[in-house]
Here is the input.
Amino acid sequence: MSAVEVTVDEAKCCGAGQCVLIAPEVFDQRDEDGIVVLLAAQPAEQWHPAVREAASVCPAAAIRLTGGS
Amino acid sequence: MAANQQDEPLRYPLPSPGPLTPPAEWPELRQKCPVAPVTLPSGDRATLLTRYADVRLALSDPRLSREGLARPDAARITASESGSVFDSPMARALNAEGHERWRRMVGRWFTAKRMRALIPKIEATADRLVDDMVAHGQPADLVPWLAFPLPVFVICDMLGVPERDRDDFKRWSDAFLSISKYPTDEVRSAQTRFAEYMSGLIEEKRRDPQDDLISELLAATDAEGRPMSDLALAATGQALLLAGHETTAGFITSMTATLLADRTRWERLLNDPSLIRSAVEEVLRHEPHGGFGMLRYVHEDTEVPSGAMLPGGTTVVCSMAAANRDADAFEDAEDMDLGRSPNAHLTFGVGPHSCLGQPLARTEMQTVLGVLLRRLPTLEHAVDPAGLRRLEGQLTTPLVELPVRW
Ligand code: HEM
Ligand code: SF4
Here is the structure.
């Protein structure tokens, strides 16, 4: 299992909070404007499925994954 | 189909064969004519998109815009366009604030954390509404007892409208939504009284700030240190009602109707309430009458993934509901799978204009479904669901009533 690297694009994020609901261990939102905050750029393997789901449902396509299977 | 109908384009919206079934034309449109010429009720020509990838691109690509719909050559939905929710004096007041700026200021109220904190209150409100419905006795119509009042009360809580004023709020919101049902002077008087009420509320929050959106916006400034104007604050209140009331009420109603229409769905949720989250997403994806679709104006020639070129100057209608059943995007797309994951449906749009209230709409639907399963496990249709009626001729087409027993 290779590591998964997560990046977020704050400029694209529209603060829908889907990522936080699906993977609260990996994503949070700034209190001031709801924009995404990345908590873990290389999340533990147990969170990979949730991170993948978050990336695929993010309405702004603001979450990118590299590496992993 | 539309290929040999160049001179006689499809009329849009398409007729629906039943209250819970999608238009029969969808599969053929997606397959053979994903970029279809249509005629809107105004008589104007537009282009209908029904494929997932095309709709996704059209909603989020900067070569297309919602603002462009104000141009004189853009298609109008109806001849007597009174202005859709997103193109009204209110929307213009908000656009004057700067869309991005407004969105960031209001968006802080819709974080996942805020939503989690709202759940107990939404649950208590739903419980109280169910109490009243049960006290009234069965059969009962779920629309006026639960689905319609709940979203208004939730928005009242968010804005910091005291409980004693909620019924006024609900009446005004009903009038705003029923432009065609109420005489115009009644709608206008609701507008005036709403505006007066909002300016009073803003004064009150300025004197005595509480933990609510209006108080927060009064105290807040944007990145450039400017506060929101009182006019924009009042418009924000109305925008949230207009955008968040009928939409959510309609989805609470059709969610209940759809889940009860096939008893095995309801039973599955009773046995495993952990499915509530994915079930709500699937209801949102599967809903065949999610509305008219979103319009966009094409500013420059744009090729869509299905291969066609959208010429600059075109108005496109993005049917998110048709795209949500595209077999290229979803396995067994016509089937309802309560555990479907991931489920990147387009019901809230995508991109920078996608629904600001989606976390709230999701939280409301999940909470209401949980309350119904817990309080009324024996809930069932009181009439044949195939005979349910939709409100036609509107941008959203919610079920008019949903008689249930338990
Ligand atoms: C199930 C219920 C709902 C559905 C299906 C829905 C759907 C949508 C859609 C399709 C859009 C337009 C996206 C676009 O133009 O691309 C939108 C925009 C919007 N919605 Fe919702 N919505 C719902 C509930 C709510 C709620 C509860 C609120 C707030 C209380 C809300 C507030 C808004 C706002 C403010 C916008 C404009 C966003 C912007 O221009 O940036 N919506 N919604
Ligand atoms: S799901 Fe996407 S748009 Fe929403 S908060 Fe997360 S990154 Fe931002």
Chain A touches chain B through 23 residues (CB under 8 Å).
